[in-house]
Design goal:
The complex is a heterotetramer, with 1 copy of chain A, 1 copy of chain B and 2 copies of chain C. By secondary structure, chain A is of the alpha/beta class. Helix content of chain A is 34%, strand content 25%. Chain A has a 6-stranded mixed β-sheet with strand order 6-9-10-3-11-12, with helices on both faces. A 6-stranded mixed β-sheet of chain A has the order 18-21-22-15-23-24, sandwiched between helices. Chain A is globular, with a radius of gyration of 24 Å. The N terminus of chain B is likely disordered. The chains are: A alpha/beta, B alpha/beta, C mainly alpha. Chains C and D meet through α5, α9, α11 and α13 of C and α5, α9, α11 and α13 of D. The complex binds adenosine-5'-triphosphate (2 copies) and magnesium ion (MG) (2 copies). One adenosine-5'-triphosphate binds next to β2 and α1 of chain A.
Amino acid sequence: MVDEKGYALLLKDIHKSFFQNEVLKGITFGIRKGEVLGLLGSNGAGKSTLMKIVAGVYRLDQGHIYMDGREVSIKNAADASACGIAMVYQEFSLIPTMTVGENLFLNREKKKAGLIDDKKCRAMAKKAFEEFGIDVDPDEYVENLSIGNQQLVEIVKALMHKPSVLVLDEPTASLTHKEIQLLFAFVERLKKQGIAIIFISHHMQEIIQICDRAVVLRNGMVEMDQSTSGLSVGAMVEAMIGKKLNQKYLQPGSPVNYEKPVLRVEHVSWSDKVKDISFEVYPGEIVGIAGLLGSGRTELAKCIYGLIKPDEGKVFLDSGEVPTGKPWMSIAKGISFVPENRRKSGIVGIHSIQYNMLMPIWKRMTKRFLIDEKKCAEDAEAMREKLQLKCTGIEQEVQYLSGGNQQKAVFAKSLLIQPKMLLLDDPTVGIDVEAKAAIARLIRSIADENNGVLLISSEMEELERLCDRVLILSKGEIKKELCRNKGDEITEAVLAEAIQTA
Amino acid sequence: GAEGQTAENAAGTEAVSEEPGVNAETDEAGNAGGQWLSVIPGYGNEAGEYAKGPNGEEAVPTTDISLTEEQYAQIREKGLKAAMIWAGASEWYNAMTDGAKAEFEKMGIEIVATSDAQFDPSKQATDIETSMALKPDIILSLPVDPVSGTRAFSPAVDAGVKIVFADNGVDGYKAGEQYVSIVTGDQYGMGRAAAKLMAEAVGGKGRIGIIYYDVDYLVTNNRDNEFVRTIVNDYPDIEIVAMSGFSAENATGEVASAMMTQNPDLNGIYVSWDVAAEPVVSELRAGGYKDCKVVTMDLGGNNDLDMAQGGNVYGKVADMPFQIGETMAKLAALSILGEDAPAYVVSETVSMTRDNMVEAWNQSLNKDPDSSVLEILGK
Amino acid sequence: MAKKFDYKKYIVYISFVIVLVVFSILLRDKGFLSYGNMMNILRQTAMISVAAVGMTFAISAGLIDLSTGAVVAISALVTALALRVTGWFPAVLAGMLAGLACGFFNGLIVAKVRIPAFLVTLGTSSVYAGIARTITNLEAVPITNARFNFVFGAGDIGPISTLFLWTIVIMILGHILYRKTPFGRAVLAVGGNEVAARYSGIKVEKIKLWAMTICGMTAAFAGILYAGRLNGARYTLGENDNMSVIAAVVIGGTSFSGGKGTIVGTIIGSIVIGMLNNGLLLMGLSVSEQMMARGLIIILAVSLSLREKIEN
Amino acid sequence: MAKKFDYKKYIVYISFVIVLVVFSILLRDKGFLSYGNMMNILRQTAMISVAAVGMTFAISAGLIDLSTGAVVAISALVTALALRVTGWFPAVLAGMLAGLACGFFNGLIVAKVRIPAFLVTLGTSSVYAGIARTITNLEAVPITNARFNFVFGAGDIGPISTLFLWTIVIMILGHILYRKTPFGRAVLAVGGNEVAARYSGIKVEKIKLWAMTICGMTAAFAGILYAGRLNGARYTLGENDNMSVIAAVVIGGTSFSGGKGTIVGTIIGSIVIGMLNNGLLLMGLSVSEQMMARGLIIILAVSLSLREKIEN
Ligand SMILES: Nc1ncnc2c1ncn2[C@@H]1O[C@H](COP(=O)(O)OP(=O)(O)OP(=O)(O)O)[C@@H](O)[C@H]1O
Ligand SMILES: Nc1ncnc2c1ncn2[C@@H]1O[C@H](COP(=O)(O)OP(=O)(O)OP(=O)(O)O)[C@@H](O)[C@H]1O
Ligand SMILES: [Mg+2]
Ligand SMILES: [Mg+2]
């Protein structure tokens, strides 16, 4: 057993179940002052659940929590912050309708004569942002910020109150390279101040880069607790999923046919986010789009799919023109889209897997105007089989699936359209390595059926593994094109360099 | 009158809650139907030949109120303005408005505002205040609530506006001081007339039910109470076997069908007024209770059609809103000319059965019944 | 992972049985269980049931309609007026068209101007009520067309009221549209997650527009049934029905925030409310007592069926 | 990226000016702009304004209260009855306590049983209306306490109605609570993102409970002002006010889904509605026409202030 002394935070034999689902089955590990601990585990391993217990969102069923050797009882979020624990949650947890400054001081407002001292709050907020080198106006409403800036605000909010233990639950999922480096710089600084930091990520490289120690959860238990020095990515992955994983570039099944494009985008412009973009995607080809946050990747994909009506430009599929601004037309012609925010725009949580899968194509599933339930069930079941989607059945509600399986359901929805052209906007955000590998193979197999794939991703690793060609986007313009067939090298390093200099 | 009602009603509270309209046998003490006398809100009001004014004034029939040609001319010269602040809206109010309008036209009086408080006392207070900006010389009004009316009408009283009330007075006001007079239908007379119609309908003998307005609203309560009193006192062979209240006029169908479920052999039902009787009639029709006759108050197309077709509706009693409107206008004019205006004026009562429908409509509302009714009647 | 019995799905049926049994015992001497009384309940709830079918579509799409009552009145008046000059079929068509127009207007503002349906219909309920009052200047319009009166209200086929038959017809049509057609699925998707529905190529605006229009049309049909039942129309019809209609839908198990529901549940919900009204009356409660009892029972039923899980 | 002028925030002020100017011109001969008429409007809207302050808290927390009207009646009756036996202060206290109890009960069910506030208060509005009817068995209760009547309604201090002064007092208290205290922030946080509020250590249930309670208390105070204004109480008071109160809040710029709002906007919203009612009546419109005009104008105002961004 671990000694209680010497740990900033020590978790001992933590158990937690949701109804019959036993998520944590006796977790024990500790973290010292000034230590950065990487917490790993596949989707649904219980990382967030464990940390939410520490942050007072959930109550543990059994177990003990010690801080600086003393047992503490954390019943709610207020208790946790009184103990000096701060957490940046995996899900968006700001108040969108409030200003940045109001969010920072929520529930801990500075007061003067019993009333909130807005002036002081604002001044302190300004100072904090300056200190961290972030350019955000404290008077701006959170809903008007980009996702990346929202994430930075959440981090600053957690740091505002000088915690002694800081939990970061997948903070890098919506940040790009530059901001991630900024974040790592904070982490280094906090570490020097003696703050204990727990860092959750599905990116092994990040764990190796900044963590002192790695803890891996599997099946509700601690599978590995080891210093990162000398630890390899492969070893961590093995601890997480219990087997080895191949991470190499996936070759196209047959050479790409560059004669007739499946998708042609001509001079598409929208607002100041997308500027006169033209390119083609060929059957069997996976084209990546790389760029910084705000470079207009999502907007470009939305323009093609029709969620945004471009001010100018045309989109052709197999030489036929696709009317812009009408997603249902795109679907009818054979374009499908996997959005970046699964929860918000991908799934209907309270509906069954089947309902989610068939959402865009109910009209195709009819016999004499009525829905053909039998065919629906067959098609959905076949797709579930094909994608190896883990669930109790196609009638299960999607909200109860793990993240990776939810994402598979979204993929299934896109595939049932029988697309010629698949648009993917960061399809593996927040997904564990195993599922990521499965999804990568899936994407490759879709392309191999003579379809085009456009893959937007912030993960250079993913682009490297999958793409036959990569377009570098900056400020709404294509700045550079890398193509394996023309002898260009597509590797993480090359891509990172290209993005920074674009 | 409205006075003294509060105390008596408060005393009657327990009586109501003890036996709230349950299916009852005749009182063993021989006081047939006695327990029904205290069910309806405001049952404590005394009846008279005509009711008396709120301060005991004797009633004068509307036919006694008139202006000479000379007086019309005098009024026309003054170029006056009038506002009409009613409590609700219906055909009955339409007729009253039309009656007043017709008179005001003759008098060259401009109508500057018309409003309907939708039975909300505070809206009526607001309407009065607002219309004062238009500086009316005359206000015709049907007060929603005599209690709050005292305050609500005070801006108009203070400004010296001539106020004529319909139906209700206002607590603490005296005729000739705060207001000119009250013009009303003969509420008690209507109750008695309805009882008489009911007796006719059931052939002087039978079992009847009553669906009354379970809301404190003086005019309706007076009519309903007088109906019950008359049946109990004057028609010993007619037995009241069920009484149920309602508060929403659309929700009487459920009440009627529950009553018929428990008393399938009812010979007649009295309902407080025409609109509330519509769902009752439809339930009787749907339940196949052809022989259960309905008697109610006020005229209205749907039930009158049923009556013309020889359906469940046997008879109706109405006052004369058109005439009330006319009289109110006349009284206001008289008061402006400094003439004596009687404090309490009562319109006649019309009893309508299938035989006198056209006449009754013309008397009461100053128009013919609906064309479909005329068609059925062959006129 | 053993699945717990999800009793919430069946709450409306359980409520139905409980209310039925309790009243049958309490009112065993008062004819509650008699055939006639049961048919009374079915007849009296027909209008609420029919309007609630449309409301189920609106609520399932994440919307609501507060103008139902006024639309009921408008369509009843339009039908009654039309019956003076034409036969029953064109008259019914006219009434339905009036409801369609009202619902379409609601839907247009909801979908195109994008303000919450609650506020849109709060406004239009006032507008429509004003129109209903104006059409005939507050006067009643009697209906003499015997066939219309028979078919749409006062008639019986065998021992069964035509009103109840219409309820069944609308229920079946509604059920098919709701459960068996792409439109119904789209309504549920829009109510479940509007953004995801848009991303899946569903024409969200169109679906909202039609959900509101259907709501207007069933309200109109309820108005026609009122007219048939009363052999006439007037502007006060439906005035107090809006809340009953919404309560029927929610008690019937439709999620108040959209995305889930059943038409059959709605009808049962409406009948439960009807049984309550009927039973409370037969028990001899005063109007005030009925109001209190009804309110409490509704809260209870909703508590059982809608109690939300806490996030953690 | 130049920031666009966010006119939506000021819609209620713009509406205010437009309505004022239009009526001033249309009704220049009819005394609309006279001091007396302006004071009329302020006096008449006081009750709606006061109740709307509490409703702003409820709506900002993502809730709603449909029982306001019934609470108004209960508190007015309780105060009036208490005035028969005690002085004005204990009587007002009694009225406020009644409102507090009603609001607290609403809040308890919303927070603890976790069903949507719309449905909870749909039920309690029926319960409370039944209670209001029962308290005095439908009787009106006159108030003879001159001091009470002066202070809470009928009085003027200098040329200014005490009702307007009360509006100002409640507005200022409300504004401070809403904008300047952690409680106000917590209300907005709960309405803006309930989960995030919970993560920030806010006791979401407690906040909801108190938001509903405050709503009940302002409704109670509105009831007391009604009693003072009318020198008496009656169970029908406030019956038709619920929708006006909600409309005032929303026109005032409070987001219907919670998280955003202003108390001052609410008061201006209420005055705008009051000006409309006043002006339409002075124009000589019939009641039906007034209803239609009011509905349309409300839709218009809400369209301008609440039009939602399309989310994709
Ligand atoms: N509120 C809840 N109710 C029921 N089950 C829950 C709840 N929250 C989490 N779970 C379940 O607990 C398990 C652990 O979830 P958790 O979110 O902790 O995983 P995680 O390790 O953070 O995964 P990810 O990498 O996807 O974030 C999952 O099976 C999940 O479905
Ligand atoms: N000023 C803004 N106001 C509101 N939303 C914004 C604003 N700027 C960006 N967003 C939203 O934030 C998200 C990220 O926008 P961004 O322009 O960074 O997209 P991107 O270039 O595709 O980057 P990524 O795909 O990495 O998110 C988009 O959904 C966008 O709609
Ligand atoms: Mg997690
Ligand atoms: Mg993006």
